[in-house]
């Protein structure tokens, strides 16, 4: 089995009827980048940035973040690397950020909500990403979006950061902006959101839990937590339909993106990029090649 999959590592995956699907890696830190390439990653569909904030009291500086993002950008070269802005909260608590206890952390202060409430923190990260973008093919995406105002506000910060850096004479790279579709609201409003961004990435882990009101980590609800639930598939369909109308692409980066049973559903609905944990890449490419 392992030997059979070996030959799929470095193929460009295409369905039998010729649809090209980009297969990318989810990264939790820069240390994982080389190995992801070796598994056959064609890019990074989700670079989680929480690692910079974990197991430490002080927040990472712009310079430290810049070095980390630049490192992955350089390792991947021409290939796209999608940096996701900070998404703490929910199941991820971080010591450097002072936060009140919440009764429902998954429905609480996390992702883009927190970033917009803490502009210094957010802008430090955006400046680092803009600078790193001069060294590779970086894109940025925002997590936990529920409406168009959040996206406009986030983009306004990004543009101001770019202006600041340019005034300081610091070079920035071009930076496409995307949003994660991981709340039912984002999927329902996909037509509106699609006018604001260059791509969508469906975060199935959260989209499933919020759609089905089933905590992603609760073992008692395993049977309810299903990526192929018709309500989840309908939201994926809506997202892809809206994206197509607006001419933007849709990726998926939750666990379902690497699941051989879910890949056919995602592709038939219009997803053209799948991002997953690197060891899942060869199998996903084989599944696609046989579709
Ligand atoms: C998701 O929600 O599907 C996702 C990829 O983001 P995270 O698992 O980091 O919440
Ligand atoms: Mg998520």
Automatic annotation (TrEMBL):
Cofactor(s) needed for function: Mg(2+)
GO annotation terms (biological process): phosphoenolpyruvate-dependent sugar phosphotransferase system
Residues holding Mg(2+): 182, 206
Active-site residues from the entry: 253 (proton donor)
Entry EC no(s): 2.7.3.9
Main location (coarse class): cytoplasm
Alphabetical UniProt keywords: Cytoplasm, Kinase, Magnesium, Metal-binding, Phosphotransferase system, Pyruvate, Sugar transport, Transferase, Transport
Reactions catalysed: L-histidyl-[protein] + phosphoenolpyruvate = N(pros)-phospho-L-histidyl-[protein] + pyruvate
A GO cellular component entry from the record: cytoplasm
Residues engaged in binding phosphoenolpyruvate: 48, 84, 205-206, 216
Subcellular compartments: Cytoplasm
Domain PEP-utilising enzyme C-terminal: 5-290
GO molecular function, one term: phosphoenolpyruvate-protein phosphotransferase activity
Enzyme class: transferase
Similarity comment text for this entry: Belongs to the PEP-utilizing enzyme family.
Functional summary from the UniProt entry: General (non sugar-specific) component of the phosphoenolpyruvate-dependent sugar phosphotransferase system (sugar PTS). This major carbohydrate active-transport system catalyzes the phosphorylation of incoming sugar substrates concomitantly with their translocation across the cell membrane. Enzyme I transfers the phosphoryl group from phosphoenolpyruvate (PEP) to the phosphoryl carrier protein (HPr).
Name listed for the protein in its UniProt record: Phosphoenolpyruvate-protein phosphotransferase
Annotated source species: Rubrobacter xylanophilus
Source organism phylogeny: Bacteria, Bacillati, Actinomycetota, Rubrobacteria, Rubrobacterales
Gene transcribed to yield this protein: ptsI
